[in-house]
Amino acid sequence: MRLPTITRTTRSLIAAAAALTCIASQAATITIVSRDPAGTGFTDPTPVAPVGGNMGTTLGQQRLNVYRYVADIWEANLNSNVEIKVSAGWEPLTCTASSAVLGSAGAWNIWHDFPNSRPGQWYPQALANKLAGVNLTDGTPDDGTGYGNFDIKTQFNVNLGNPDCLAGNGFYLGLDGNAAGKVNFAATLLHELGHGLGFSVVSVQTSTGYRIAADGSAYVQNGGLPSVWEPFMYDNTAGKTWLNMTSAERRVSALNNLKLAWNGPNAVAGASILTGTPMVTATSPAGNVASLDYSPSAFGPAVPTSGRLGALAVLTPQTGETGPGCEPFNAANRAAVAGKVPIISRGTCSFAIKVKNAQDAGAIAVLLANNVDGAIAPGGADATVTIPSVGITQADGNRLKAAVAAAKPYSSRAVAGVVTASLAIDPLRKAGADAAGRPLLYTPTVLASGSSVSHWDITAFPNLLMEPNISSDLTLQVSPPKDLTLPLLKDIGW
Amino acid sequence: MSQKHLSRQRMLCAAGITLALLGLATSASAQEAPVQSTDSMTVSRDAETGKLRAATPEEITALKAAGAARAMRVTAKPTQQKTHGASGARGARLTDEFMSQSVAVRQPDGSIAEQCFDSHDAASNAVAVAHVHTNQVEK
Q1: How close A199 gets to chain B, by Cα (Å)?
Q2: What residues of A are in contact with residue B73 (Cβ under 8 Å)?
Q3: Which of A178, A245, A476, B43 makes the best surface tag, with the fewest CB within 10 Å?
Q4: Residue B136 maps to a domain
């Protein structure tokens, strides 16, 4: 934890020196201002034990400690001469016993055509203030809320973990990432504040492609001003950025899966941290087998990134089976998979059951093929599974099964020909980048799933802070070699 | 594809049809985002037969939630327009509707999946149907 008094004194001295010598900028200062009534939220007096480096002894203090810790991370990475003000509250947000709104955040004010801005583009206020060198809301009356002129507004769910609000899975307030089934509040807050600071195409309505009008009154189909993001949002299909698109084109681009890339130089350079794409390669005596992508299962041992996986095998449907691989293997299938890698189709029972049955029959790994279009990452849990497994598409599964059938006639003496699978990394295809190495924005084919282009694509690896899904392996770092958040913010002017 | 995905696909299909029946396709001449009507005759395309049929109560409920979210999203507006006197910069104060919002959903294996949405309404809908996007499936 930082020492606020000392740090602020130091900052004041630096600020004075900067003012005297006309130095352009200093480390950012982020001020958290609570909206909570006394005795609630940040001042909740409920006693708690220190956890994961958070030494607070009341619930309220621990909440505040996480806010301060996360704000410190952003302060250490951003420069601005203008204080960044964050309004924060703990409120009862939408819940059920099995799902909940965790919280939200965003820029509370946006600006265009201020000093040092690119003309005619909307900026989030914290960045606008930094570039202008002044607080642009100075002189604007508050709206009675007390935070009307703040840069960022945040709120998080005060009831999380209660019986009717994601029961038992409250916020983890430690700072070490060991959330152990709870919701990692530090990572979630770091992500949400990232949106508020500028990781968001905030002034474009992605469901329509409309922009906010220059007078700030509403979304409009034509004539609105672009977001500061738009010059960097390059659609590989359209061959142009959002800046040069119509509303209709932007709406289509927001659904152009794996085709919308960020072309800002900082993020593109940073994208070198993304790993190559993991793939399954296969060799067959019957001819070439195209390489295919895979997603490792959530259970079982870690899947090696390279090396021989084994000879592929195909199951024969068993009498009375409920689904492929769902029952203990019969003698024929045990003989087919022993020491090999069966390709088992998805369906009926869990992936963990299929893999366990294969393991019990002597298989050394499993390829789990989808039974509908699309990629799958096999989920589930079974601590007794000791062989690796990966998910592949239905089409790839069919292709491998066909390759196994085609290989059988090829043999040396009495042994049927086999297809041998291996794991490898395609260094030419970065996980989460386009063919030119530009990091991809999240553009799911169905926007109704909710997330927007204001995130990195979920195919990025290593996992990134600003993907729509908060991953358990995040490190609370915002720059390379761990993350690409800061490079994107630098591209827009931070 | 999981049953969740299939039912979601049906809902989305039905949503598209309903919206088309409502004549909600944006007019080429419209300058400001339209407000959604509340009157509707709801039909759904059966995922197995491919034919239109009356929507089930479950589909109607889901559609209303999705429709409400859509209506609120298209009507989101800044609350105040601002001018910075010294520089002449123009600004706008936003609303909660513009906020990014994180949702958590307990998965069948007990784990928690998080997803950040671009608006309150999309997130609320995700909570209502207890579904966040992930290609990780149990079976």
Answers
A1: 10
A2: 205, 207
A3: A178
A4: no
Distance, in angstroms, between B20 CA and closest chain A CA?
A: 15
Please name the member of B70, B93, B112 whose beta carbon is closest to the beta carbon of A181.
Answer: B112
pLDDT at B128 over 80: no
C-alpha pair distances (Å), A195 with each of A104, A450, A452, A468: 9, 15, 12, 11
Q: Residue ranges per domain, chain A?
A: 4-197, 204-274+431-491, 276-429
Q: Indicate the number of domains in chain B.
A: 1
The DSSP annotation for A416-473 comes to: EP--EEEEEEEEEEETTB-TTSPBBB---S-GGG---SSSB-TT-SS--TTSSS--TT
Comparing CA positions, the residue from A266, A263, A278 lying closest to residue A484 is A266
Q: Which domain holds residue B121?
A: 3-128
What is the pLDDT, as a whole number, of residue A117? 97
Could you tell me if residue B39 is inside a domain?
yes
Residue A181's pLDDT is what? 83
In this structure, is residue B46 part of a structural domain?
yes
Shortest alpha-carbon distance between residue B56 and chain A (Å): 20
What chain B residue is nearest to A169 in terms of C-alpha separation? B112
- The answer as to whether B135 is a domain residue is no
Strand order in the sheet with A84-91: A30-34, A84-91, A152-157, A99-107, B100-106, B112-117
Measured from the Cβ of residue B38, the count of other Cβ atoms closer than 10 Å reads 10
**Which chain B residues have a beta carbon less than 8 Å from that of A375?**
135
Sign for the CA dihedral angle at A464, A466, A468, A473 comes to positive
- Looking at domain A276-429, its CATH class is alpha beta
Query: Burial of A9 by CB count in 10 Å (0-12 exposed, 13-18 middle, 19+ buried)?
Result: exposed
Which pLDDT does position A474 carry in this prediction?
86
Token pair of A99, please?
A: 């799902």
Convert the pLDDT of each residue in A438-494 to its tens digit. Answer: 999 998 776 444 557 899 998 898 899 999 888 888 889 999 999 999 999 999 999
What's the whole-number average pLDDT of chain B?
Answer: 58
Tokens of A456: 């990195």
Under DSSP, is residue A414 helix (H, G, I), strand (E, B) or coil? coil
| pLDDT (tens digit per residue) in A153-194 | 999 999 999 999 999 899 999 999 999 889 999 999 999 999
Residues of A in contact with B117 (CB under 8 A): 450-452, 468
The Cα B9–Cα A446 span in angstroms is: 9
Q: Which amino acid is at A46?
A: T
Query: Contact at 8 Å (CB) between A131 and A117?
Result: yes
Given a cut of 50, the residues of chain A with pLDDT beneath it are 1-23, 447-449
Residue A387 has a pLDDT of 95
User: What integer pLDDT is reported at residue B6 of this predicted model?
Assistant: 30
Q: Are B126 and A104 in contact (CB under 8 A)?
A: no
3 state DSSP class of A89: strand
Q: Are B99 and A124 in contact (CB under 8 A)?
A: no
Whether B46 shows a pLDDT value over 90: the answer reads: no
Which residue is it, tokens 């949400």?
A192
* Nearest alpha-carbon partner for B104 in B117, B90, B93: B117
B62 has a pLDDT exceeding 60 = no
